[in-house]
Amino acid sequence: MAALDCCRWWNTYLPPVTILRPAVLVPGPWCFALPLWGNPVLPCAAGLQAGGLERDFPALMALPGLLTLGTAVRCWEALAAVRQLVASKPAGALGPRLARRCTMQYKRSVLRPILRIADMARVPPELQSGPDAAAQFSALLARVPAAWRVAASATLHAPGGAASAPPAPQATQLQLAPAYDALRVRHLAFIQEAYSGAAPPAEAIHALRAALARLWALVWEPRHKEP
Predict the structure, then answer these.
(1) pLDDT tens for residues 20-78?
(2) Same domain assignment for residues 118 and 202
(3) How far apart are CA 69 and CA 65, in angstroms?
(4) Which of 145, 165, 185 is the last residue of a domain?
(5) What is d(CA 138, CA 73) in angstroms, rounded to the nearest whole number?
(6) Are residues 138 and 115 in the same domain?
(7) Among positive and negative, which fits the CA dihedral 222, 223, 224, 227?
(8) Is residue 54 part of a domain?
(9) Structural domain range at position 14
(10) Superkingdom of the source (predicted)?
């Protein structure tokens, strides 16, 4: 009992319990190198448990060279003329001549200079035409946070060109965000118990014992225990 009293006394010197959240990830050059496929921060429409964007856009995933958000933004911007031409016509009224024109523009501005594809046999059937490709790229980028798209575009046009990779701390933080969320849920009961205030004197030792047992049993990140 004396040992528990001593432990309780020392615990009064611990800093107050706070609920820790991952810092907000500020958009920046790292957005250009953000992986498109198999990325937990870019889930499919059915949710993260069902997979990533590759589930919703299998044709784009199969397109050689399309791996990062930056490349997708480059392709989408290069398709501006195609998108404008398609938007100027009623749905389904583009016509074969204009469709061929869009496809030639798609080959000249995207497939050859950006994705380095000269053989159309390497392009999935769903992406063989310019209008179809423009629609797919627009749908893909609509699933990415707007601030990340803007940051990737800004990096593309900034002096020095695109960043080759995101800074390691930001990339790691980004990839671990779902894990941090799961960790907060798992520890929420303990945090709520710690916030509940002092127990009645007759029950203080038992409450402390339960709290210490809970802390000992949970996997608690070192930074959560440090002042």
Answers:
(1) 454 567 788 888 888 899 888 888 988 877 889 999 999 999 999 999 999 999 999 99
(2) no
(3) 11
(4) 165
(5) 9
(6) yes
(7) positive
(8) yes
(9) 2-22+174-225
(10) Eukaryota
